[in-house]
Write a structure and sequence with these properties.
mainly beta, SH3 type barrels, five-stranded antiparallel beta sheet, 5 strands, 35% strand
C-alpha cells in the first residue's frame, strides 16, 4: 500500500527574519511647490514647473529651463 502524504502547513517567517530588514527611508519632500516664484544667484528669477525629490525644474525668462537642486534657490518675495 502507498501512504498518502499529509498536507503541510505554511510556516510564518521567523521573528528574527522580520527584524533584520531596515526600515524604508522616508521620501524627500521639497519645501517648494509647483508655481512658486524663486530666485537663483546666476539665472535670476524663475517659476517652478516640476519637482522630482529635491530637483526643481525652473522656467527662467527668455525660454531658459534648468533643473536645479532646491538648496541652491530662494523663494522670491512678492
Amino acid at each position: 500500500m502507498v501512504e498518502a502524504k499529509k498536507p503541510t502547513k505554511a510556516r510564518a517567517p521567523r521573528a528574527s527574519a522580520l527584524k533584520s530588514a531596515p526600515p524604508p527611508a522616508p521620501a524627500y519632500a521639497s519645501k517648494y511647490a509647483l508655481g512658486d516664484h524663486i530666485s537663483h544667484p546666476m539665472f535670476g528669477d524663475g517659476t517652478v514647473t516640476a519637482i522630482d525629490a529635491n530637483k526643481l525644474t525652473i522656467d527662467f525668462p527668455e525660454s531658459v529651463t534648468k533643473q536645479i537642486i532646491d538648496g541652491y534657490v530662494m523663494r522670491r518675495r512678492a
